[in-house]
Design goal:
Length: 317
Amino acid sequence: MTQATLQQSLEIGDRYHYQTPIQWPQKTRELHSHHFDSTIWNEFQFRDDDIIIGSYAKSGTTWTQQIVGQLIFNGAPDVEVAVLSPWLDLRIPPKAIKLPEVEAQTHRRFLKTHLPVDALVFSPKAKYLYVARDGRDVVWSLYNHHANGNEAFYDALNNTPGRVGPALEKPSESVVQYFRDWLDNDGYPFWPFWENIKTWWAIRHLPNVMLLHYADLKRDMPGQIREIAAFLDIPIDENQWPTILEHCSFDYMKRHAEKSAPLGGTFWEGGAQTFVHKGTNGRWKDMLSTEDSQRYEAIALDQLGVDCARWLVNGMA
């Protein structure tokens, strides 16, 4: 650790009443695929109040973006999170276009990532929200996202220059087989699941990291939003509180899905309404066999350990 880094750690530690220097995560690798270009974080210039929203994918990311957007803009009805809160490490559009757009933003920035911690440039300046969801629920949502991608979706991912690795293809018609392939090949055909969860779980103690869970948001959205606001140091305007809650509800987001879906939903059959789909958990329970479900749980326990595997099932319940 350099002297400058040590001094920065001490200053941040004092702010959060830490007695010893904080060991901040370090980037150790790059990830490239049909979706990822992790090198964009190497050039990103952090600001002191940046908010980074992380997840594996289909774990409540858009919902968390909506919550943060409503807190920042105090319940405004026209907050287009798909525009204001881009997925930074998505390689489309390329970083030469995306970085100047993000740099030009004058509001408090809230950006999205699907990277594991060790492929991310982690800054003490930013605050990080990481939202997770049971992997079985993730897959059911991911299948809808993947299977309903239209020609423009596959063309953008597969034919935009810079893709690394195999092309993304249409999935089979069986969501159960899709789940088995995803489990057997750790996130196939997207990216590894277990490392994503455990790298974020490992830094949950850091003062600028807050873990969220989809199930907790479902159980007590008002309480969770207040905790998020406190973590982000955003005072809540109580006169706007009912409006903020309405705008963060699934029904409202479904009715205004074009504000949440990338490019207004043009990449999916059925448009934005397909992107903002069901918003429910447990759809796998009537379709997965007991053996399939138990195999998932055994792998989760082996990969994550008891505490993290328990949390991933149902949050803090």
